[in-house]
Design a protein that fits this description.
single chain, 145 residues, alpha/beta, Rossmann fold, 5 helices, globular
């Protein structure tokens, strides 16, 4: 069975379109979807009058919420007849996703593309663009605009 890495960020429309595309692809190749959500490492930090402050309870609550979302998404995928597992990890998204793909001996990474301009990429960056450049395995890009 081919492992398919599916990074998700829980943005409503984009995640749904991405999951539907990954489900179709997984069925075609009899693959297993390996969901991954990469949470930023600065979730609990805030800037106030006293400078940077860290609030671990904010980070813990956000991580718990994201884990519930991952569990729900995993169960939806399994209910549609495709094997699935998930991982939530904090770190730098591109590095974590590629590390997970290597760990799972994945055959593919499925990413979404909003179809934004190159100027957007210059100022904000594009994880999809980064992964298509750095990944040693094929990256399937699904348009989600």
């Amino acid at each position: 069975m081919t492992n398919i890495i599916l990074p998700v960020d829980f943005s409503e429309d984009a995640t749904e379109k991405l999951v539907q595309g990954a489900l179709k692809f997984a069925r075609e190749i009899s693959g297993k979807i390996c969901l991954i959500h990469v949470a930023p490492t600065d979730i609990g930090f805030a800037i106030g009058d006293m400078g940077f402050q860290y609030f671990p309870e904010i980070e813990q609550n956000e991580i718990k919420h994201e884990l519930v979302q991952l569990n729900t998404l995993e169960q939806r995928i399994i209910a549609q007849g495709v094997d699935c597992e998930h991982l939530l990890k904090q770190g730098i998204a591109g590095d974590v996703i590629l590390e997970y793909a290597k760990e799972k001996s994945a055959g593919y990474i499925v990413m979404g593309s909003h179809g934004r301009s190159n100027m957007y990429d210059v100022f904000v960056g594009s994880l999809t663009k980064e992964l298509t450049r750095r990944s040693p395995i094929p990256v399937l890009v699904i348009p989600i605009h």
